[in-house]
Design goal:
GO terms for molecular function: delta(3)-delta(2)-enoyl-CoA isomerase activity. It comes from Drosophila grimshawi (Hawaiian fruit fly). InterPro entries: ClpP/crotonase-like_dom_sf, Enoyl-CoA_hydra/iso. The protein is an alpha/beta fold. The protein has a single domain, classed as 2-enoyl-CoA Hydratase, Chain A, domain 1 (Alpha-Beta Complex). Helices cover 51% and strands 15% of the residues. The chain is built from 11 helices and 11 strands. The strands form 2 sheets. Strands 1-2-3-4-6-8-11 form a 7-stranded mixed beta sheet, with helices on both faces. The chain has a 4-stranded mixed beta sheet with strand order 5-7-9-10. The site of ligand LCMDX3IU has 27 residues, from strand 7, helix 10 and helix 11.
């Protein structure tokens, strides 16, 4: 083999370094680009990245790991080329074991705070459908680039779910109030053109690598800022949005659990889950 070829292969190998998140699971994968210092965090729970307890814990650990290892930014994406995330794993909410439900909802609240308040610049390369909490993951990031042909939004009201305040906030942090309110009340899922029109997403990409490049460019736009000053300014800008959850996480947890355990919610969920399963068998 020519020396130049070997050099090129070495360079290719060096470009992306996988880092573990200490728990050995592959539910999320983290790769840091050695050249840019930007970490790509990939959701990797087949078939549709539905967020169960284990994925939420893993995701939270990976976000923290990315901050600890001094990465310059975080790009959130999916290993599935049709689904970014299908939101919460509905099986966690259906006739739940109460101890697991508590752990699950705590993990959800913690993960959202970690992503929403992350010290590093964050961007979502949305390479598939981003439904409900899938959309919340994307809106917790500072920038969104999406591929055509997919839907994004929070359609909870269509299926009889009331959205908890932090989910509301993640919409309100990117959309004007009247658009957020209308979309939530309609249970609207946005097409890419609609999402771009209301600025729910920032850019359209023509493939996953293009989306990653666009996200990296956004993150690069902070190159000349001082990281601590940037992080503190972001925290201050977002302080009001997280006040409720930071001041009273247990109260927020209690309210959600009470709601999830109502016969009304459980019956609606049962019908929805049955529909989802029969659709996937068509
Ligand atoms: C005042 C206080 C208020 C407190 C409020 C408290 C609680 C609020 C309660 C709930 C809040 C919820 C937020 C959420 O995120 S709920 C999740 C909502 N998500 C969805 O509805 C997405 C449903 N899925 C889809 O639309 C499609 O699957 C999708 C477009 C994502 C992909 O389609 P595709 O055709 O590729 O794949 P499918 O064949 O449909 O699915 C494959 C497989 O996966 C199962 N599945 C899909 N989504 C979920 C899910 N979210 N949870 C669990 N399982 C899911 C699907 O059933 C198939 O399974 P199988 O039949 O192959 O076993």
């Amino acid at each position: 083999m020519l020396r130049s070829q070997t050099k090129l292969m070495d360079l290719g190998r060096r470009l992306c370094r996988s880092i573990g998140n200490n728990n050995g699971s592959n539910l999320t994968m983290v790769e840091v680009d050695d050249k840019t210092g930007i970490a790509t965090l990939t959701l990797n729970k087949p078939p549709v990245n539905s967020c169960n307890l284990e994925l939420l814990l893993d995701l939270n650990e990976s976000i923290k790991q990315i901050e600890r290892n001094g990465s310059r930014g975080l790009i959130l994406t999916s290993s599935n080329d049709k689904v970014f995330s299908s939101g919460l794993d509905l099986n966690e909410l259906h006739q739940p074991n109460q101890d697991r439900l508590i752990a699950f909802w705590r993990a959800l609240q913690d993960m959202w705070l970690s992503l929403f308040l992350s010290r590093v610049p964050t961007a979502a390369a949305i390479n598939g459908h981003a439904i409900a909490v899938g959309c919340v993951l994307a809106t917790a990031c500072e920038y969104r680039v999406m591929l055509p042909g997919f839907s994004i939004g929070i359609h909870a009201t269509k299926f009889g779910y009331v959205v908890p305040p932090f989910i509301l906030i993640s919409y309100l942090s990117v959309l004007p109030r009247y658009i957020a309110e209308r979309a939530l009340l309609q249970g609207k899922l946005f097409s890419i053109d609609e999402a771009l029109h209301v600025n729910l997403i920032d850019e359209v990409a023509d493939g996953k690598s293009d989306a990653i490049i666009k996200c990296a460019k956004f993150i690069g736009s902070f190159a000349k800022t001082q990281p601590d000053a940037r992080a503190l300014t972001k925290r201050q800008t977002r302080a009001q949005d997280v006040q409720l959850l930071i001041k009273d996480p247990e109260g927020q947890l209690r309210e959600s659990l009470e709601y999830i355990n109502t016969p009304f919610f459980q019956q609606g969920l049962e019908v929805y889950l049955a529909k989802l399963k029969s659709k996937s068998k068509e």
